[in-house]
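Incident log, structure service

09:12 report received: a user says their structure output differs between two submissions of the same chain.
09:20 pulled the input from the user's history:
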Amino acid sequence: MNDIVLFALIATLGTWSVTALGAATVVFFKSPNPKALNLMLGFASGVMIAASFWSLLQPAIEQAEAASGLPAWLVATLGFLAGALFMWGSDRVVSFARGMADSTQGHPCERMNRIIMLVLSITLHNIPEGLAVGVAFGALQNGSYSMETLMGAVTIAIGIGLQNFPEGAAVSIPLRREGYSRKKSFLMGQASGMVEPIAGVIGACLVVYVEAILPYALSFAAGAMILVAVHELIPECQKNQRTQPYFATMGIIIGFAVMMLLDVMLG
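09:34 re-ran on a clean worker, output below:
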C-alpha cells in the first residue's frame, strides 16, 4: 500500500475511534454534558471552516494554477459547489427516507425504521468527512510536501474527529432510550463511523493515482466541510444560545483561530 494512502487510513481510523469513544458514553452516562458537547461542536466547526480555506481551497487554487487547463478560479468553484451539492443530495436522501419511516407510525416496524434512519443519517454525513481527510493526505503524494500541508491534513483529521465524538453519542444514546442494551447501542453507534476509513482510502487513492483530480478533490472536500459546518454543526451547538449566548460561539472563534495560526505559522 502506498505510504500516503496508509497515512490516510490511519488518520480515518483515528476519526472512527473518536466516533466509538462518543458512542461509549452510553456505557458510563445517561447523557453527556451538553455544555461540553456544544463547546466541542463549536470548536470543530471553527477548525473545519478555517481548514476548508487554508488547507483545502488555497492548495486547490495553487495546484490548478500550476496545471494547464481550466482557470484556477473555475476549478476551485466547480469542485467547491460539487462538494456542497453532494452533501446536500445525501441529506435530501436521508430526509426522504426519514419521511418514509414517519409514514409507518403505528406500524410494528416503526421503531426499527427510526433506528435505521438515525444510523443512516449519521453514516451518510461521515462519507464526505472521510473523503476530506483522505484527499488532504493524498495531497502529500510523492513526498514533495511542506510542513504546512502535513499539518493541514492532520488538523483536518483532528477537527473531524472532534465533531465525531458527539455524533457517536447522538446515535448510541437514543438507541439506549429505545430499549437496546448498552453493548448493542455502543456497537451500532460506533458502526456509523466505519465508512470514514473506507471513504478516506478512496479519497487518497483518487488523488495519489489520478494526480489531475487533486485540485478538484481538494475543493470538493472544502465544499462538503463548509456545508456540514454551517448547516449541521453551528446550528446544533447554538441550541442553548439563550442561556449561554456566547459559549459555543467562542468555541467557533477559538477553533478557527487555532487552525489559522497553525497554517500561517507553519506556512
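09:41 both user submissions now match this output. Likely a transient worker issue. Closing.
09:42 reviewer note: The chain has ten helices and no strands. The chain has a mean pLDDT of 80.
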